[in-house]
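Hey L., structure's done. Input below.
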Amino acid sequence: MKLWRGDTTNTTNKGYVHEFRTEGIVTKQLLNGDPDYIQRRRLWEAVQDHVAPCSEAQDYFSATSSFLSFTSSEEAALRFAAGPQRNKLVPCADYEETAVVFELNLRQMKETARPHVYIFHYTCNYRLVKPNSPHPSSARVASLVSCEFCNSAPKEHTLLLIDVPGYLRANPNSAARADALACSERDSEWLVLPVDYVARLNGFQSRIPPADFWRARLFRTAT
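Output:
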């Protein structure tokens, strides 16, 4: 099973996307998000709030969410990476990118008791860390990066993965909002939630750290 996520790196509202070489794939919760929103709203409502927000509070959650949006359609991910102008994507070398497509290889993904909700265990690999720029100061920063969750003692990391269209169709007790189902079907959307608890944060770590199961494909955009 593979999932993809397309992102641009040259905009000011994308948070930490451009720092993926050291930080991994980072959720927007770091943009002053509410770490308790999903628990408070419950997973069923939070998924729909993220996919199709319809209030100011839901708009804020979607913009600062603990979820990472992925898709089972590589074509859709490339479309998101191209941006709203649908720019042409050209593969490029390190540090030339203005867009990136993250690819997850989830061969060991396991089903949970909830239909269309899965769990994936993995180990991080900080040997994959590279500087975020060719500048010497970036190399010094990269040399200091480590996994706060593992804290020098390797642990098993965990992701919760939700096949959103299947999940919204399968709930026998509550009908999904039509707009949320339509949006998720259009984008073949999956939501990925890192669930690595860090005591300092009093909550889950807001990232998928560097690991062997994912890679970043680099592009520059051309009009």
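Residues 37-51 form the longest helix (15 residues). The chain is about 25% helix and 25% strand.

-- N.
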